[in-house]
């Protein structure tokens, strides 16, 4: 076990000003304390914001090629610590080793080059009539992040914000601060000027609120749950700052009646269960045509029956372990919440096909939940409406394409989605009717530079690629004589 006694403010590791009990970071599989981490409070946040404010003028004027070099150095520094990052996230989140390496660490190290190249080619100025339109960094950014893809979701904010010329105060999720400490160490070694990046670990109610309300923070960018997004919006309103929200989802995977059951089964299961269902865009509702209900159910249940619960720290020989091996939930509280939803599904009359709410027999320790599949789910049920954030798949039937679209759009969310069909044009037509920020057709690959974000209560922003960069920019027009 290691102790971390410092926050990172104004280019230095400093002891917190506010006196708070240290946070215990718990390994999701062993339930043991991995590390104790110092927490900051309002005074520490204010100090970090002051440092970021002071650094802004110079950083925002730093030439783009110099900023790009810093970004590349950070990417290289993270790459050098790839295995350590994966191992830490396996412990903090419970992501199995193969998934932690490929997804958690892999996505987090790769994006720095993307933002470095982007700013080198970005059109920072354009002429429009007698005006010169200039893109400029918005200022000081408060970045508040969740625990499920902890480092990647930090990188989705800190990467483009620094690239844009903004300075940053990062508040990571309290359950998973260790990966953020590694990033901060890498940033320090890269020699980023003091105050450009600051790390304040602490509670959302104190550090998060201090960032959202602070008059010197120009933008608060939150990835998290809907209720916290609503609170941050209210807190930010008095200072009229920009608020970027990436929130929850209840995404639908619409299987059209011409799809092949064998072809869709793996995507239907993995699309929901990845990272043990702790994925904001997880395809947690599978919509199948009533006319072919049994065929699709059989294929999905056969696939789901291959899922196994695994020790996230183990190296597994099975090449399919990436898809079939699920780790524990992040915390005891998340485990209890998810098991409560499974019980609610049973109580409300859904048909339990796989899994259940009990503690899995194979693990005495660890926050495990059995991967669970329900059929006979109707749109009014809790498990069809609320974000569960665990390995729970709800299968629902529809009558025709119009009915499928109506059910898919019938929640308050609009983050992800998918359509499966033998006819790509037909799938695209259905995808365009879905009120959601992204739709994958026939299992097409995740694109790390395509815009990612939600409609409706799933948020109001787009991250990744040039769309993510532009979230951190202001637009100025200079009228020329
Ligand atoms: P959460 O909303 O509980 O916490 C997110 C962050 O907000 C944490 O750092 C937390 O400390 C902080 N916070 C809490 N209260 C706050 C307050 N009053 N003011 C300011 N900050 C506050 O979410 P979580 O449990 O960490 O993450 C899971 C949620 O995140 C799910 O709903 C998931 O769908 C969502 N999520 C969305 C995306 C996306 O890209 N849309 C990605 C990942 C996760």
Briefly summarize what is shown.
The chain has 481 residues and is of the alpha/beta class.
What does this molecule look like?
There is one protein chain. This protein is α/β, with parallel strands linked by helices and 481 residues long. The chain is built from 16 helices and 22 strands. It folds into two domains: 267 residues, 3-Layer(aba) Sandwich (Aldehyde Dehydrogenase, Chain A, domain 1), CATH 3.40.605.10; 198 residues, 3-Layer(aba) Sandwich (Aldehyde Dehydrogenase, Chain A, domain 2), CATH 3.40.309. It binds nicotinamide-adenine-dinucleotide. Nicotinamide-adenine-dinucleotide binds next to α7, β11 and α8.
Key terms for this structure?
481 residues, alpha/beta, Aldehyde Dehydrogenase, Chain A, domain 1, Aldehyde Dehydrogenase, Chain A, domain 2, 2 domains, 7-stranded mixed beta sheet, 5-stranded parallel beta sheet, 41% helix, globular, binds nicotinamide-adenine-dinucleotide
């Amino acid at each position: 076990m290691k102790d971390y006694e410092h926050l990172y403010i104004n280019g230095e590791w400093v002891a917190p000003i506010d006196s708070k009990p240290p946070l215990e970071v718990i390994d999701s599989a062993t339930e043991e304390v991995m590390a104790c981490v110092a927490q900051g409070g309002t005074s520490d946040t204010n100090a970090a914001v002051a440092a970021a404010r002071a650094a802004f003028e110079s950083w925002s004027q730093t030439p783009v090629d110099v900023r790009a070099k810093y970004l590349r150095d950070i990417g290289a520094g993270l790459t050098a610590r790839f295995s350590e990052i994966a191992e830490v996230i396996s412990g903090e989140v419970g992501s199995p080793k193969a998934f932690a390496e490929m997804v958690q660490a892999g996505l987090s190290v790769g994006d720095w080059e993307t933002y470095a190249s982007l700013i080198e080619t970005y059109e920072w100025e354009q002429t429009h009539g007698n005006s010169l339109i200039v893109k400029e960094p918005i200022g000081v950014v408060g970045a508040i992040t969740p625990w499920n893809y902890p480092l990647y979701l930090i990188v989705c904010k800190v990467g483009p914000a620094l690239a844009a010329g903004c300075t940053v105060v990062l508040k990571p999720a309290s359950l998973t601060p260790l990966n953020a400490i590694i990033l901060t160490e890498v940033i320090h070694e890269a020699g980023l000027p003091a105050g450009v990046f600051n790390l304040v670990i602490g509670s959302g109610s104190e550090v998060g609120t201090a960032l959202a309300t602070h008059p010197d923070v120009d933008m608060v960018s939150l990835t998290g749950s809907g209720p916290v997004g609503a609170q941050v919006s209210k807190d930010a309103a008095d200072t009229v700052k920009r608020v970027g929200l990436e929130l929850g989802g209840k995404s639908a995977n619409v299987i059209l009646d011409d799809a092949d059951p064998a072809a869709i089964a793996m995507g239907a299961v993995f699309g929901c269960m990845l990272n043990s269902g702790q994925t904001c865009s997880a395809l947690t509702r599978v919509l199948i045509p009533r006319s072919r209900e049994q065929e699709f159910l059989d294929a999905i249940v056969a696939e789901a029956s291959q899922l196994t619960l695994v020790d996230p720290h183990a190296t597994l020989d099975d090449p399919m372990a990436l898809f079939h091996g699920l780790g524990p939930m992040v915390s005891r509280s998340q485990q209890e919440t998810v098991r409560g939803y499974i019980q609610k599904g049973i109580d409300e009359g859904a048909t339990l096909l796989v899994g259940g709410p009990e503690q899995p027999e194979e693990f005495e320790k660890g926050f495990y939940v059995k991967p669970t599949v329900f059929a006979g789910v109707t749109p009014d049920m809790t498990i069809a409406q609320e974000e569960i954030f665990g390995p729970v798949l709800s299968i629902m039937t529809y009558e025709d394409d119009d009915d499928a679209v109506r059910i898919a759009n019938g929640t308050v969310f609009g983050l992800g989605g998918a359509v499966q069909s033998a006819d790509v044009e037909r799938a695209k037509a259905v995808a365009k009717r879905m009120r959601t920020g992204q739709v994958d057709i026939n299992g097409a690959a995740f694109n790390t530079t395509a815009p990612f974000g939600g409609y409706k209560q799933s948020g109001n922003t787009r991250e990744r690629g040039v769309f993510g960069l532009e979230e951190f920019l202001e637009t100025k027009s200079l009228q020329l004589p």
